Each structure stands twice: as C-alpha cells, then as structure tokens.
Fold this sequence. Notes:
- By secondary structure, the chain is an alpha+beta fold.
- About 25% of the residues lie in helices and about 30% in strands.
- It has 2 domains: about 25-100 and about 230-245, no CATH class; about 100-230, Gcn5-related N-acetyltransferase (GNAT) (Aminopeptidase, 3-Layer(aba) Sandwich), CATH 3.40.630.30.
- Strand 7 (about 145-150) and strand 8 (about 155-160) form a beta hairpin.
Amino acid sequence: MSAHSPEHPGLGTPTGPHPLDNPALGSLTGPHAHFAERRGRVLRYPADVSPWLALPDAPDAVDWADLAVLVGPGGEAPLAGFTGQTPDGWEVTFSLEGVQLVDDGLAVAPDAEALRLGPADVPEMLDLVERTRPGPFLPRTVELGTYLGIRRNGALIAMAGERLHPPGWTEISAVCTDPGFRGEGLATRLILAVAHGIRERGETPFLHTAAGNTSAIRLYESLGFRLRRTTRFMATRVPERLGDEVVGAR
C-alpha cells in the first residue's frame, strides 16, 4: 500500500463519506469554492469552466428544485458520481458507467519536455481535445489547475492536467495525444509529471475513465493506480413544465 493512498479507500470515515464519493461537491465546497455558483445545497461550476453540477449526498425535493433553477427549464444537468434516482419526469439524457482509480505507488517524475499551459494556449488545447475526445474541456477549464503539454515543431501534440479537486485529492484529466504521435509514451510521461506536481503539494492523484475502456484501465494500473470504486457519469434534463413552479421554491 502506497503512503500516498488511504488505508481503506473504498470506505467512508466514521464521521462521513469519503471525499471521492462525491468529488464535484468536495471540490466546490473546498479548493474550488471560488468557482461555485450556488443555490441552496446545489453547486455548479461556471458553464465555461466545467459542466459538472454537485448535489448533496442525499438530495431531497428542494435540492432538485434548486438544481432546476440553476440549470433552467429544459437544460441539462451533468452529474459526476451520482448513483441515485432522478425525480419523475426528469429525462436521463446520458449515462456512462465509470471507474475511479487512485494513486497506489506511481513513479511520479517531472518531464523536461513538458511545458506549463495557460490561457494563451487554450485555442490549441481546444483543437487537440476536439480531435482526441478525452472528455469535457471548455474555454476556462485551464483555470482548474496545472496543465502540461508537449510541443513538436511548435505544435501542441499532447497534454494532461488537473480537474476536480476535493480536499487532499486532485483529479488528472484531459489526457490526450495527437493521433500522429501515439505510441511514444507521451500520455504516460504527462500523467506522471502532473502527478508529481500533485504529490509535491502533499495531495493524492486520482482519475476517472469509462468502465468499458479496459485498455486505459490496464495502462493506469500498470503505472501504479488502483481501482477504488465503480461510479457513474450522467446527465438529466430539467423538465420544461417545472420551470415556473420551482422559481419560488425558496
């Protein structure tokens, strides 16, 4: 067992759930609180930063009404790690079984070729994401944490960075490589370099991937990640008919 991972990672503590059980909530009430748009107990990132919303662990009818106000009638609410049931009349528009993996002995290391990416690099980052589809990446996602990239002949060909940030943990995300440069181990190098920065802060890296992406899971496990839990990524649509009714919920 790595010194950088919890002794019982699949369990909550005696005083409450594990921070990775609801990572968006932990982020938006913790290190990412300055991003939080809130109504009642429901929080979200700005729409150009991250799509994720955060419900409390046991949402009630008022929470769903607050979510509807935040998103707006007919809008979609992406939820990370939510395994409960949506209210009657709320359409589930997307559902993907996923896995959550945590650092259990990564051989982290900085990378001399990796460059820190910032706002000026966002057009190229968005272009790389469009071509490789690693998951949600928006115009201000780069503000969530450290993003590192590798360039060849001036062009951005690979990147990885930080996304969700529950207390004590940082998610590695947006890992992608231009198809013309795959097979060179660039993604592995960037994962280990981003993880090095996370460890330097005294935090623990974690990441998510689709449960069906067995090749990625094998790669991550070979690097020193281990499976912590299964999870779900989903989106639900706010019914149009609830729009007027929920405005006065508070």
